Amino acid sequence: MIAIHDASSIGEVFFQAAQTYAANSLMAVPANPARSYHPEGYEISYGDAAAQVRALMRDYQQAGYGLGHRVGLLLESRPEHMLHKLALNALGVCCVPVNPDYRPGEFAYLIDHAQLDLLLVLESHADATEAALRESRHRPAVAIWQQWALGLPAAVRPAQAGQVGPDTPASILYTSGTTGRPKGCVLSHHYEVAAGHAYATRGGLASIREGAERLYNPLPLFHVNASILSFYCMLLTGGCQVQTDRFQPSRWWQEVRQTRATIVHYLGVVIQLLLLQPPSEEDKTHCVRFGFGAGVEPQLHAAFEERFGFPLLELWGMTEMVRIMVDCHAPRQVGSRAFGCAVEGVQARAVDDLDQEVPDGTPGELVIRHSEETPRKDFFSEYLDDPAATESAWRGGWFHTGDMVVRDAGGMFHFVDRRKNIIRRSGENIAAAEVEAMLLTHPWVEQAAVMAVADEVREEEVLACIVLKAGVPGRDQAALAQQIFQHCHRAMAYYKAPGWIWFTPQIPTTGTQKIQKHAIFARGIDPRQVAGMLDLRGMKKRG
Fold first, then answer.
1. How many angstroms separate the CA atoms of 493 and 139, rounded?
2. pTM score
3. What is the CATH number of the domain that holds 471?
4. From CA 460, how far away is CA 452, in angstroms rounded?
5. Containing structural domain, residue 503
6. 245 C-beta neighbours (distance < 10 Å), count
7. Average pLDDT over residues 124-149
C-alpha cells in the first residue's frame, strides 16, 4: 500500500502508485454494445494511465493552466474524467465536475459561482454548454474533448506562483443545502488522499487486499463516492476501479461477473431493484466479497445477503467528510440501519438542539470532528465564498451533519432521518428550497411547500404542496399539476421535479409566516394516501 503523510499531494501519490503497480489495471470499463464509447469494454493499466496523465499535463501546461485555475469537467463517467482530473490536480488546477443532468440555469449557476477558467465537455453536451453560457454572467473558455488534438484555448489569467501542497484545492463538488442553491464544497489534495486511505484501512469485513481488488462502482464520477472514496482506495492499494456509465439493474450482474468484481458499491435503490430481478441459479456465481454503501431498507438487508451470498456493509459519509464510519466488524447489526462506531480520526456524538449530548438510545443530530486538538483535520476546506455557512456548520468545534441518529449502548450509531430539508432520491440530494423557489416562478402558484415522501424504489420522492393564486383558470387539477410539473421539469434536473403534487387552500404558517411543514399532514398519515394527491412520477424522465 502506498504510504501517505500530511504533506501528500495527489500527483505525488498517483505517480508513486503508477511506479509501484505499473502492470496492474487502474480502471476498467465493462463491455456494453449499447454504449457510445468503448462498447467492447477496456482496461487501462497504472503505467499507461501515468503516460496519458503526463501527456495531458504537458498540454494543459503549454496552454498556461496551473496553480489556482479551475476547470469544469463534463465528461460523464468516462475514465477520461479521472485521467484529466489527475493531470489537472498534479498541476495545481482545481477540478469542478458537472452533472450532465443539469438544466441550463443550474449549469449557469455553477459556471458563475465557481468562476471557471475552462470547461472541458463532451461533444454531445456542446449545445447544453452553449445554452448555459447564454444564461451565465461569467464566460470561461470551452474545449470539446473530441477535438483535443486541435489544441486548448489559452488560459486568460496566469497561474499562481508556488507549489502544489496538501491544502491546495483539488475539487469543488456541488452539494445541496437548505438555502436553495447548491454549495460548492472545496476538497483539498490531502482530503481526497486521506479519504482513500481511511477506506483502505477500515479492516474487518472491509479489508482491502493489495493489488487484488476490483471495485465495481455504478455511481457517477461527479459525486464524491466514485471519484474520491473508492478511486483513491484503489489507487493507494494497487486495485482497479470498474466504472460503468450508469446503474442498470438488467446489466448489473452481467457486468459484475464479466469484470470479476470483488467489491460492489450500492445505494438503497440499487438493492431494491436487484432483489426485484428474477431469481437465478447464478445469484451466487460471482467474485464479490462485500458490498459497500448506504440506505438498504432494514427488511431487505438480510434477504439480500442470503440470496446473493455477501455482506452489505452500511456506511455513513458525506461530501464534507467521506472518511467513512462503517459497520464492518463482528458482531454486525444487520437490518438495524447501523453504520458503525466512531473510529480514530472520526469522533462522533449525537446532540440535541442546544448541542448537548443526548443519552444513548435517544435520537440526536450527528456531529463529528477529527479530534479536540485538530477538529477540522481531513475535512472539507470550506464552502466556496460562504464563510458564514462554513462557520455555522462548525459551531462549537463540531461539524453538524444534519442527520438524526441514535447511538446504542455499545457505541454503534444507527441512522434515523435527515434533519436538513433535503430529499434524497436515488442517491441525489435535492434541496426542497430550490424546488420551492422554482414553483413560485410559475404564474399560478401562490405558495409552495416541498418535502420528502417515502418511495418504495427510490428511497424518497419530491412532494409539492401548492396553494394556487385566486382566479387560476380551469378546474381540472390533474391538468394543472401536469403544467406545473412541466414548468419545473424544463428548468431543473429531471429528478428534482415534483413526483407528487397536492393542491390545498392553505399551508399552515407561524406568526412570522414561516411555513410549518410538519403541520401540513396529520401525524402518522401517509401523504400519498391523502385525498386529491396527484401522482406524477411517471412523467419524471431524462430529457
1. 22
2. 0.87
3. 3.30.300.30
4. 6
5. 424-539
6. 20
7. 97
